[in-house]
Amino acid sequence: MKNTIIKYGLYGFFTGLVIFLATILFGKNLSYSAQEIIGYTSMVVSLSFLFFGIKYYRDHVNNGIISFGKALAIGVLISAFVGIGVGIADYIYTSFINPNFATEYLETTLKTMENTLPAEEFQTKKVTLTKQMEDYGGSGFMAFLMFFTVVLIGFVISLISGLVLQRK
């Protein structure tokens, strides 16, 4: 099990790192919503190694048998590798490539909110969002959020993969 997790985890790690950095670098002229869609798509593509890792373990290591729990464990552990890759890419981007990302993102979000919300509600949300960005806008925390997001999405994909691939 360990070898399968490491093998497919590293595939996902490098795929997540490369695709996420490429998305960040080549998509910088796109809107934040388009970048967000591309970012989530790159996460799901990187997390596809969960399914293939679970399937490989079932078919080639465990004689065609895998329980739901073992499939879930393999998937979550592989997703941790992918999360680390994406988290590193995010840290590199927000620390070195675009250290002003948090400020730019806040400004863009506030402009969108100002155009869509009533003035009173906008002021309330502006204060809250500005405070959150001051408290949590550091590169390390943002990288951790990316890691957590990837592992959470990976957990869901692991649940689905475990249900589809389980054989007793």
UniProtKB/TrEMBL annotation:
InterPro entries, alphabetically?
DUF4199 (IPR025250)
Record-annotated membrane-spanning stretches: 5-25, 37-57, 69-93, 141-165
The UniProt keywords, alphabetically, are: Membrane, Transmembrane, Transmembrane helix
Q: Which domain of life is it from?
A: Bacteria
**Protein name (Swiss-Prot/TrEMBL):** DUF4199 domain-containing protein
